[in-house]
Amino acid sequence: MNEIEIANLALVLIGGEQITSLTDGSTEAQLMNSFFYPSLETLLQEHPWNFALKRAALALSVDTPVYDYAYAYVIPSDCLRIIDFDGSENGYEYKVEQGLVLTNCESCKITYIENIRDMNKLSPMFRQALIAYLGAELAPYLTNTAAYAQGASQQFVSYMRKAKVANARESHLNQDTDGSWLTVRK
């Protein structure tokens, strides 16, 4: 599925005219061009989606912090939000400023949310949420009926909830046990 297919499903949801590209000159295309990627980034940044997680060992910046921290590391250009900092379990703090991770840790590994541009990387449930979100965002501009925006908003909430549940089911973390009653009875 590509951007145009997603855009057209959102337009169909609110009774809009379909488009051939994000720049085809129609009102729908102009609005979709303005809303598509900011909406996608908003939804990606909102939750630690498994399909959008990416790991990186960051490069040291040539700029060093003036105070409080010893090191600055360059955040990848496709990073929307840092989810995990590898040094935190060792007591290291970090701060994000102006595209840099500031820390006293001598190396910097992060897990972050990638700014995805390949629509095939999105989970099917997330795509449905994006379609409904775009419909809700564009409905006030393309329809004279509040019912379209309300219907798309309700679908968005439902799909988003389902997408988060599906996302949670994709991971399993082993819990450390201390020999308590949880491990004694098998």
Structural class: alpha+beta
In total, the number of strands is 6
Overall geometric form = elongated
How far the N terminus sits from the C terminus, by CA atoms, comes to 46 Å
Mean pLDDT: 91
**Total count of helical runs of at least 4 residues:** 5
The portion of residues forming beta strands comes to 15-25%
In terms of per-residue confidence, which ranges show pLDDT below 50 for 5 or more consecutive residues? none
Radius of gyration: 21 Å
Overview of the structural elements:
The chain is an alpha+beta fold and 186 residues long. The protein folds into 2 domains: 94 residues; 63 residues, no CATH class. Helix content is 42%, strand content 16%. The strands form 2 sheets. Strands 1-6-3 form a 3-stranded antiparallel beta sheet, with helices on one face. A 3-stranded antiparallel beta sheet has the order 2-5-4, with no helix packed on it. Strand 4 and strand 5 form a beta hairpin. Helix 1 crosses helix 3, helix 2 packs across helix 3 and helix 3 packs antiparallel against helix 4. The longest helix is centred in the C-terminal third of the chain and has 24 residues. The radius of gyration is 21 Å and the shape is elongated. The mean pLDDT is 91.
